[in-house]
Design a protein that fits this description.
- This protein is an alpha/beta fold.
- 47% of the residues lie in helices and 16% in strands.
- Strand 1, helix 1 and strand 2 form a beta-alpha-beta unit.
- Helix 18 runs antiparallel to helix 19.
- It is elongated.
- The model has no long low-confidence stretch (mean pLDDT 94).
- The structure holds 5'-O-[(L-methionyl)-sulphamoyl]adenosine (MSP).
- The site of 5'-O-[(L-methionyl)-sulphamoyl]adenosine has 18 residues, from strand 1, helix 1, helix 7 and strand 12.
- 5'-O-[(L-methionyl)-sulphamoyl]adenosine (MSP) binds next to strand 1, helix 1, helix 7 and strand 12.
């Protein structure tokens, strides 16, 4: 994956802390990154996974004022809430970035200074509109007929300031080439096309400073201005690995392997960010994974509609892994998706509790009734067929993960549950215990069916480990097979091998997702 040594750097956007806690929209970006980070650790890579909070700018300053708090106190409280929300979703970040941290400030200023020293910054007057909700300079033709921001339904502010400008236009050709020839990957394909179209429509230089705002990082060569919040926020992808403070770590990890983001912020990431990096003499990220949005019951999620979903509430209701699975299995890859609360309850009860959970528990009971304490791979026709099926599913699921399509990876993995259910229906092992004389299952088949069922459960757990890590651990613990989330290179291959381990039948039943 990574272009050098065995490292893997993956980052989510950092979230505005004017919101008090993590909602489903934030959780989408973060969960995608978490799943990919966990997968890389299983493959023996040295991972740095960053997420965090975007704490400067006009929007946050206003929210602090409205809640009668000084900005630092306000962001401290909300950043702590975000961090706690992510912990409650078992997000395995290596660094929780905060843009008010001293190390970020040092790195962000060094980055700006490099762009300035390389001659890509000039002074000019910005006369135009600014949408605080977007934290972006906007044009009249982007507004609704009533002159409102289409996203925030607010009137943008009229600004006229002396600002520092970045020569984005100097990088238009290079951007088109690098993206067009996939040296910078934008995935999925439809998002790449949109970005290319954006570039072809023409790129204008943009202001990278604000004169009338105090809540930000001062421009290093002009203390009277603060850095435009987007430029400062983007530089978190550098400062998280020590740009400006820890050159060895930085050199070890840069450039980013995968930047995960939502489609609303593709322009900032896929156009502004590579250009800013080149201007500072740095390499651009390898891949931008741009996910779409999820509507709730057919409507855009919004406070006024009262349909905002807070994933922590789902974690309480469905367990942490349950909430992670429900979100991951609906991840909108190349187009917007829709979720309904009723469907989620059905999916939890059907796919997780009734599917994986029930299969595991049935297999344990059968093993106990058959008096089996431990079973080696009998390697007969039943196990061999299941092994072939598992290999096929592994190939497809791995491919889906590699194409960064987590929803499809899970759907493919679940074929193994259906396969096991079908096997049990055919073999009907329980009939032996009911002493149904009309049905004769050979003893060898009984043991082999139980082994195969248990092993199929384990294989589902291995493939879905990045999404449901606690469940994977519980299944392996029950079967007395060692499981750790960071594996030496090559170990994952062994764990994925069908029938490689002797399975212990647990003495007590295990109820996953009860
Ligand atoms: N602070 C900037 C990002 C700076 S990164 C250098 C920002 N923050 S945000 O909190 O508004 O959103 C961050 C991420 O959350 C984006 O990936 C965005 O797509 C996602 N979502 C926020 N609200 C969303 C929905 N309602 N639905 C889906 N995802 C959305 O932008």
């Amino acid at each position: 994956m990574s272009r050098h040594n065995n490292t893997f750097l993956i980052s989510t956007p950092i979230y505005y802390v004017n919101a008090p806690r993590v909602h489903l929209g934030h959780a989408l970006s973060t969960l995608v990154a978490d799943v990919l980070a966990r997968r890389a650790r299983l493959h023996g890579q040295n991972v740095h996974f960053s997420t965090g909070t975007d704490e400067h700018g006009a929007k946050v300053a206003r929210a602090a004022k409205e809640s009668d708090k000084n900005p630092q106190q306000f962001v401290d409280e909300n950043a702590a809430n975000f961090q706690e929300s992510f912990d409650n979703l078992n997000i395995s970040y290596d660094h929780f970035v905060r843009t008010t941290a001293e190390s970020h400030k040092t790195g962000a200023q060094k980055f700006l200074q490099a762009i300035y020293d390389n001659g890509y910054v000039y002074k000019d007057t910005y006369k135009g509109l600014y949408c605080e909700g977007c934290e972006a300079f906007v044009k009249e033709n982007e507004l609704t007929e009533d002159g409102l921001c289409p996203l925030h339904k607010t009137e943008p502010e009229k600004l006229e300031e002396e600002n520092w400008f970045f020569k984005l236009s100097a990088f238009a050709n290079k951007l088109e080439q690098e993206i067009g020839e996939d040296r910078i990957n934008i995935t999925p394909e439809n998002k790449k096309r949109e970005v290319l179209q954006n570039i072809q429509e023409g790129l204008e230089d943009f202001s990278i400073s604000r004169a009338e705002l105090e809540w930000g990082i001062p421009i290093p060569w002009d203390q009277g201005q603060v850095t435009y919040v987007w430029v400062e926020a983007l530089s978190n992808y550098l400062t998280t690995i020590g740009y400006g403070t820890n050159p060895d770590t930085f050199d070890n990890f840069w450039p980013t392997d995968i930047n995960v983001l939502g489609k609303d912020i593709a322009r900032f990431h896929c156009i502004y960010w590579p250009a800013l990096l080149w201007a500072a003499g740095l390499e651009a990220p390898e891949t931008f994974l741009v996910h779409s949005f999820l509507n709730v019951e057919g409507h855009k999620m919004s406070k006024s509609l009262g349909n905002v979903i807070y994933p922590e509430d789902w974690a309480k209701k469905y367990s942490t892994d349950g909430a992670r699975f429900l979100i991951a299995s609906e991840l909108p890859h190349d187009r917007d998706g829709n979720i309904s609360r009723e469907d989620m309850a059905d999916k939890y009860n059907g796919t997780l509790k009734g599917g994986l959970g029930n299969l595991f528990s049935r297999m344990i009971v059968l093993g106990q009734k058959a008096g089996l304490a431990e079973i080696k791979n009998p390697n007969g026709a039943i196990a061999q067929d299941a092994q072939t099926k598992t290999q096929e599913v592994q190939k497809q699921a791995e491919k889906a993960y590699e194409q960064l399509d987590i929803k499809r990876a899970l759907e493919t993995t679940w074929q193994l549950i259906h396969y096991a259910d079908k096997l049990l229906d055919e073999q009907k092992p329980w009939k032996v215990f009911k002493q149904d004389t009309s049905y004769k299952i050979q003893d060898t088949n009984l043991e082999e069916t139980i082994f195969t069922g248990l092993e199929l459960v384990r294989q589902v757990a291995v493939l879905a480990a990045p999404v449901i890590p606690e469940t994977t651990r519980a299944i392996h613990e029950a079967l007395k097979i060692e499981w750790t989330e960071t594996l030496p290179e090559g170990k994952f291959k062994e764990l994925k091998q069908f029938g490689a381990f002797e399975l212990k039948v647990p003495e007590k039943n295990v109820h996953l997702f009860s």
